[in-house]
Amino acid sequence: MKFEVRKSVFLDAIQTAASAVPSRSTLQILNNFLLRLEGSWLEISATDMDMGIRVRVEVNGQENGAVVVNAKKLLDLIKVLPDDNINIMVEDYLLQIAWSEQGKATIAGFDASDFPQFPEISEGLSFNLSSVELAFLTEKTSFAVSTDSTRLILNGIYMEYKDGQLIFVATDGHRMGKAHIEQENLPIEQGVIIPNKAISQILRAKSGDAPIEISFDDSHVLFSGEDIQVVSKLIEGDYPKYESVIPSSFEKEVQANRMELIQVLRHASAVANQRTRQVRLSFEENSLEVSASDPTSGGECRESFAVNYQGESPFTIGFNGMYLQQILEMCSTEEIRIKMNSVVGAVIIEPIGEGLDFFFLLMPLRLVEDA
């Protein structure tokens, strides 16, 4: 194998593929890249057996071939080379790298046949989304993906197709994000759970509004862009019936300026208990008071501002201030609406505006004076 490539182009490609190299693995082969050259196209592949990334870059190809090489050693070397052309040649599995007449290095490689093969999704279902559409669906849901390894089915984003809508949902049991886009005749008969990492990797590598093909079968999902593929195992199991926790009606509703509420929450959160992050929202007529205290370390904050509130008055409810602020920051509109029933029931938070196809659900915190 022999080729010439610009350092910056090669570095971008191997940094992208490196996201699939496991930080720790008992299988030594997984600590490597697979480099495969055919004509003027070089493929760099990596996998941790749950997710794989394949990146394709155009090079000055001189001799086809393939080799497996240690990912960390190659990446560490390429990072520090001058931004110029690099010549790479492989003989007897030895990677020879030259960046000048005086500058050369070698890295021992392995037989390419030892590297795990990517799963083939030849008989699966597929459809296309733009990068912008996939980014929208992911942004409004991925924040709520659970990191609890004992609840694996919540460790991904649930994708389903219903009534002409492609729907993404994620929840960790405390908060939920749901977003949809209108799509006609998608070949999705039942929902699947996609690991969040796979979606984030394809979005990180794509730019603009380029199309992304999404293919899947019973066990894997494949995201394909022009010069990158990300394949991942699907998460097995039945996703919770999320619709059952969404209230159908509400007794209390408030409309507020989003940025004003965020700013007041920041003030209260600064003195809130750092373990519970509890803040109190107290509604009375058309006023909202946001407060927090931490008797353990000392400190209290109270601040009021005008809102449009309808419902029982006075009414006080508690939230994790960090969760609430994060949700408000994703709403993006000038005004937001919070819909409630009781101090323990699910609360819906949504932007106010047209064509906004998403909302958030947040569970309240039980109010305790010493929190």
Structure explained in plain terms:
The chain is 17% helix and 42% strand. It is of the alpha+beta class. It has three domains: 2-114, DNA Polymerase III, subunit A, domain 2 (DNA Polymerase III, Chain A, domain 2), CATH 3.10.150.10; 126-244, DNA Polymerase III, subunit A, domain 2 (DNA Polymerase III, Chain A, domain 2), CATH 3.10.150; 247-362, DNA Polymerase III, subunit A, domain 2 (DNA Polymerase III, Chain A, domain 2). Helix 1 runs antiparallel to helix 2 (71-80) and helix 3 (131-139) packs across helix 4 (196-205). The N and C termini lie far apart (64 Å). The model has no long low-confidence stretch (mean pLDDT 94).
**Percentage of residues in helical conformation:** 10-25%
Rg computed from alpha carbons, rounded to a whole number of angstroms: 25 Å
Query: Mind telling me the CATH superfamily name of the largest domain?
Result: DNA Polymerase III, subunit A, domain 2
CATH topology of the largest domain: DNA Polymerase III, Chain A, domain 2
Q: Please, how many helices?
A: 6
CATH architecture of the largest domain: Roll
The low-confidence runs, each spanning 5 or more residues with pLDDT under 50, are none
What sort of overall outline do the alpha carbons produce when their principal axes are compared?
elongated
**Overall strand count:** 26
As for the number of domains, it is 3
Ends distance: 64 Å
The CATH class assignment of the largest domain is Alpha Beta
